[in-house]
Amino acid sequence: MPDAPGESLGRMQPHVPAPPDPVRRRLVLAACLIATFVAAVESTIVATIIPTIVGDLGGFNLFTWVFTVYLLTQAVTIPVYGRLADLYGRKPVFFAGTAIFLAGTILCGMAWNMPSLVVFRALQGCGAGAIQPIAATILGDIYTPAERGRIQGLVASVFGVSAVTGPSLGAFLVMHMSWRAVFWVNVPIGIAAIAMIAAFLRENVTRRQHRIDWAGSLLLLTGFSSLMLGLVQSGTLGRPSLIVLTLTGVAALVALYLHERSVLEPMLPLELWRNRVIVVGSVGNFTSGAMMMGVAAFLPIYVQGAMGRGAIDGGLVLGAMSVSWAAASLAAGRIMARTSYRFVAMLGGLALTIGCAMLAALRPADGPVWAAAGSLVIGIGMGSCSTVFIVSIQASVPWGQRGAATSSSMFMRFVGQSVGASVCGAVLNATMLHLDPGAAHAVERLLDPAVRTAMAPAELAHLTGVMAASVHNAYLLATAFAVLTLIVASRMPARLSPVRN
User: Fold this and answer.
1) pTM
2) Are 434 and 473 in contact (CB under 8 A)?
3) Engineering a disulfide at 417: which of 1, 290, 293, 382 sits with its beta carbon 3.0 to 4.6 angstroms away?
4) Ordered alpha helix ranges (H), 112-238
């Protein structure tokens, strides 16, 4: 039961989803939103408690891996889960992924040192790679194209809520219980999501023998994990290690391409990338993801370091993006039904460009209000783009390839975020090194209110100028990513919409 052109993509359709009744559909929606929240809040809540974890377990030199390994394992497993969901149905893959995530979560709370925590976070990420994409695929199955815009707005609001509540919840649990409880609090919520999906989602799965493309899975994981590891750790790894990782990743992806062309049921169906809507949506997710991380990674630091404001101001400025992101997602679903996918995508790309330009023009004297305004406009762009890209992609393929298409799009966003954080960080560091080779460590003093107050006016002005100029160049690159998103959005086929396919 395809939604749009692209039926030829689904020559093998072993599954036909049973249409849910309205009550069951709302309960499945609630379960998917709960599952999405559990996976989304994991990053923000752990960021709050990492100083406490380091104080208890030690291993300061490994603490960045607590975040890196979770990102890597989550990203590289997304395409695998998406394809398995197309072959065996959404429910078993969702159950397996969520169970792995919960097992990793429990073990994280039982970690006895930093290496064990890193290993358990890797396991947790392996499960998280299934939760968000499969939940999004389930929602794409049970809602029509015209309804998906509104539903994706609700999903986006979950990310906004997790960004706001995660740090506060983490701080509360650490203060009144233990950092271990921060991990364990997700367990009953995840179990509830599994129980609700099991009880209320009905899948009519035609049982037949499948040949799992294990070789393709291995090549996929090797290729993308090598390249992403090189990107994420480019600032700490030596040149020989980066060269080895890059060559390994490229060789594995070339081998993957050659292998997938001859496999009956490939892990990464290459025919998906002949669909213009999928290409536009996936590339748009990559460029917008790169832009978003290029902004979000440095905006609170700019507010605190260059403007001299407190941590609360930095959080509120970034929070403006989360609020407008959720609101724009809801609005985008309604607008695209009345206009077209391309109109909403270009509107979002334009908002991203304007918001990034506002931040690139930011000066320390402008204050946090102007920074929040730029963040707010970027949130409007992200809400519009993320919604229209996922809705258009899900409508462009039949059921049997919706999991792979959705997962590929989400994977491209993860890759884009890694690229954006890495290259914008590299530009920032290079600018700082050019302006003052000794400022790289000195600017850290700007983030400590007590030390900042005691600094001589000349030194304070100099370091503030170095930080502002460095972030400015990083934001120029983020603006370039925003412009690329606008250009990509303009390539969306004209006149397509949730009600005209």
Assistant:
1) 0.78
2) no
3) 293
4) 114-142, 145-176, 179-184, 186-200, 214-232
Q: How much is the pLDDT for 19? A: 53
d(CA 317, CA 397): 38
438 and 482: one domain? yes
**Cα angle: 346, vertex 347, 349; to 5 degrees:** 60
Task: Say whether both 68 and 217 belong to one domain.
Answer: no
Same domain, yes or no: 385 and 468: yes
Same domain, yes or no: 113 and 41 = yes
Question: Looking at the structure, do residues 217 and 310 belong to the same domain, yes or no?
Answer: no
Confidence grade of residue 4 (pLDDT, cut at 50, 70, 90): very low
Beta-carbon neighbour count of residue 486 at 10 Å?
A: 22
What is the total residue count of the chain? 501
The verdict on residue 74 lying in a domain is yes
**What is the reported pLDDT for 60?**
59
Q: Looking at residues 223-229, what average pLDDT do you find?
A: 77
Whole domain around residue 258: which residue ranges?
213-266
End-to-end Cα spacing for the chain: 14
Please tell me the total count of domains within the chain.
3
Measure the CA–CA gap between 486 and 398, rounded to whole angstroms.
Answer: 27
Q: Is residue 391 part of a domain?
A: yes
Residue 13 forms part of a structural domain: no
User: The domain spanning residue 120 has which CATH number?
Assistant: 1.20.1250.20
What are the structure tokens assigned to 203, written together? 């899948």
pLDDT in tens, 325-369: 888 888 888 888 888 889 999 999 999 999 999 999 988 888 888
Over residues 110-150, the pLDDT tens digits come to 988 888 988 999 899 889 888 888 888 888 888 877 777 77
Residue 62 and residue 180 share a domain: yes
246: helix, strand or coil: helix
Residue with tokens 């304007």: 354
d(CA 399, CA 394): 9
Contact 135, 35 (CB under 8 A): yes
Tell me the backbone φ, ψ of residue 203, rounded to 5 degrees: -120, 130
